[in-house]
């Protein structure tokens, strides 16, 4: 089993069920795409909660697929799954516990709102395997600001959900996993009448985008970076300078693909 779908009245609850870490294998990507596309025409569903079974929300790409055709076979995360999540036409709340890292956090960032258990490990550590967090380079700066998001990705940092730098990522933190689903359903129900702005459409929190980007590049000069670090910086620059989110993501996709072509063994399922 890869996915479970149930209802709480007018709230659809989608559960990742792919032990041990709910990795984004080809079957689970396919199931997510089909589920969210299937929810779109269902007018009885007013909002969606997405969470993970077992030890955590999602640990990202499935390492058993790295270096195999399944890693980049459609549907992929950024091209297909995240578009379906954002395009389902309902407020989507991610309920996080245990861990939401790599592609798992990218999945949560495509949701409209997030709630987490304190202590949940949050991060985009793709730099550790020499790749970029493709869609994360476009969405994370829109939540945390250019400097904070870029530093987090370049460091491969994995932080507890309650870390001060992550404050704007969450609508609510809960102390115990037993409280998580109820809190997410409550947030989802409140969002029905006041739909949130999707992360992709949010303004960057930086007061001066160009100044924030310049300051970030000055701290991390492009000509002094290895290919993966340079790629992250270039992707963030694309997010800031592109006229639309889709244009920035398309440029980030090009950078991701070019970098992945030099590292086929670690080219994860995020393209």
Output the CATH topology of the domain at 3-129 and 156-199. 2-enoyl-CoA Hydratase, Chain A, domain 1
Largest sheet: 6 strands, mixed
Would you tell me the structural class of the helices and strands? alpha/beta
Helix content: 40-55%
**Overall shape:** globular
Give, in order, the helices and strands: EEHEHHEEHEEHHEEHHHH
Describe the structure.
- Helix 5 packs across helix 6.
- The chain has a domain of 171 residues: 2-enoyl-CoA Hydratase, Chain A, domain 1.
- The longest helix is centred in the C-terminal third of the chain and has 17 residues.
- The C terminus is likely disordered.
- It has 271 residues and is an alpha/beta fold.
- The protein has 10 helices and 9 strands.
Can you give keywords for this protein?
271 residues, alpha/beta, 2-enoyl-CoA Hydratase, Chain A, domain 1, 6-stranded mixed β-sheet, 3-stranded mixed β-sheet, 9 strands, 41% helix, disordered C terminus
Question: Mind sketching the topology for me?
Answer:
Layout: E1 3-8, E2 11-16, H1 26-39, E3 47-52, H2 69-72, H3 77-86, E4 92-96, E5 99-101, H4 103-110, E6 113-117, E7 121-123, H5 136-144, H6 146-155, E8 158-160, E9 172-174, H7 180-193, H8 209-219, H9 227-241, H10 245-261
Parallel strand pairs: 2-3, 3-4, 4-6, 5-7, 6-9
Antiparallel strand pairs: 1-2, 7-8
Helix pairs in contact: 1-3, 3-4, 5-6, 5-9, 6-8, 6-9, 8-9, 9-10
């Amino acid at each position: 089993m890869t996915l479970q779908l149930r209802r709480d009245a007018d709230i659809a609850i989608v559960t990742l069920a792919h032990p041990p870490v709910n990795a984004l294998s080809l079957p689970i990507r396919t199931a997510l795409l089909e589920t969210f596309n299937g929810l779109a025409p269902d007018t009885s569903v007013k909002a969606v909660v997405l969470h993970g079974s077992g030890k955590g929300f999602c640990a990202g790409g499935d390492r058993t697929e790295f270096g195999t055709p399944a890693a980049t076979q459609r549907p992929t995360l950024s091209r297909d799954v995240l578009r379906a999540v954002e395009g389902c036409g309902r407020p989507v709340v991610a309920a996080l516990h245990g861990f939401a890292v790599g592609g798992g956090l990218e999945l949560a960032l495509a949701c409209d709102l997030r709630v987490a258990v304190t202590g949940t490990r949050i991060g985009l550590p793709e730099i550790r395997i020499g790749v970029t967090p493709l869609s994360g380079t476009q969405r994370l700066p829109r939540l945390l600001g250019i400097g904070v998001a870029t530093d987090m990705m370049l460091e491969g940092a994995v932080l507890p959900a309650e870390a001060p730098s992550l404050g704007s990522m969450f609508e609510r933190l809960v102390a115990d996993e037993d409280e998580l689903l109820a809190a997410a359903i409550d947030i989802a129900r409140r969002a029905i009448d006041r739909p949130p702005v999707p992360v992709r459409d949010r303004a960057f929190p930086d007061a001066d985008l160009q100044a924030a980007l310049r300051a970030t590049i000055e701290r991390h000069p492009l000509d002094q970076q290895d290919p993966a670090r340079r790629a992250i910086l270039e992707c963030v620059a694309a997010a800031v300078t592109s006229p639309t989110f889709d244009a920035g993501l398309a440029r980030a996709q090009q950078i991701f693909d070019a970098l992945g072509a030099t590292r086929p063994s670690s080219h994860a399922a995020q393209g």
